[in-house]
Amino acid sequence: MVVVSTRVGVVLARFEDLVDRGLQVLIEEDEHLELRARGVPHERLVSAIAKHRPQVALLNYGSLRTPLEVRELVATHPDTHLVVLANRPSPAECNQMLAFGATACLSKETQARDVLSAIHLASRGLHVLRQTGTEGADDALPPSGPELLTPREAAVLELLQGGRSNGEIAAQLHIGVETVRTHARAIYRKLGVRSRRELART
Questions:
Q1: What is the pLDDT of residues 99-152, one digit of tens each?
Q2: How far is Cα of residue 27 from the mean position of the Cα atoms in its chain?
Q3: Cα distance between residue 74 and residue 97, in whole Å
Q4: Calpha distance 25→96 (Å, rounded)
Q5: Who has the most CB within 10 Å: 32, 48, 89, 99?
C-alpha cells in the first residue's frame, strides 16, 4: 500500500547562508510542509524539480540570468508554483516575475509568517501580491538579478511572441518600425536570445 503525503512539498534554491538556514527552519517547523531539497544550485533547478516534484519551489532572484528563466520553469513544470525571493524588490521587478509566471515575489526581509502564508497560498495556485512601503528608500540596495524589460519592451515582446511583423507591431503600438527594431534588440539582449526564431522557441 502506497502512502501519499498530504504535506506540501517544497524545494529551496541556493540562497545566502543566513537566508537558507532561516527558510529551512521555517519550512521544517511547519507540519504541513515537507522540505524535499535545499541549497539547489541554479543550474540544477530543473532537474531537482523534476526529481522531487514539489508543489512549491523558492527561487533566488539574484541567481536568475534572465526573467525568461522563470517562464521556462513554469512551462517545463506547470504543477510547481514558483515563489521568488529578492533583496528589496521594486514593484517593477515583482510585476516582471509575476508576468513571467511566478506565483509570488517577496523581499528576503519579509516576516516569517508572511513567507509561510505565501508558500501555502502558492501551493493552491493563488498569486501573492507584494506589500508596498519600502519603495523609494534612499538606502535601497541596487537590483541584483536579471535586467528588467520596460513596459514598452514587454508590450513589444508579447506581440513578437504572437508572430506579428515589425510593421504590424509598429502600427498597433503607434511607433516607428525602427523603434520596434530597437526594442526588439533590447529584448533579445535582456532575455539572452539572439533572434526572433529563438525567442519563439521559449
A1: 888 999 999 999 998 899 899 989 988 877 654 444 444 444 444 566 667 778
A2: 20
A3: 11
A4: 29
A5: 89
Q: 195: domain range?
A: 151-200
Question: Which residues on adjacent β-strands are paired with residue 57?
Answer: 11, 82
Q: What is the DSSP string of 2-25?
A: PPPP-SEEEEEE---HHHHHHHHH
Contact residues for 18 (Cβ-Cβ < 8 A; gap 6+): none
**pTM as predicted:** 0.69
Residue 70's contacts (CB-CB under 8 Å, 6 or more residues apart) are 59, 64, 82, 84, 97, 100, 101, 102
More confidently predicted of 163 and 150: 163
Residue 107's nearest CA partner among 120, 99, 118, 123 is 118
Together in a domain, 119 and 33: yes
Locate 197 and state its grid cell: 526564431
For the domain that residue 55 is a member of, what is the CATH number? 3.40.50.2300
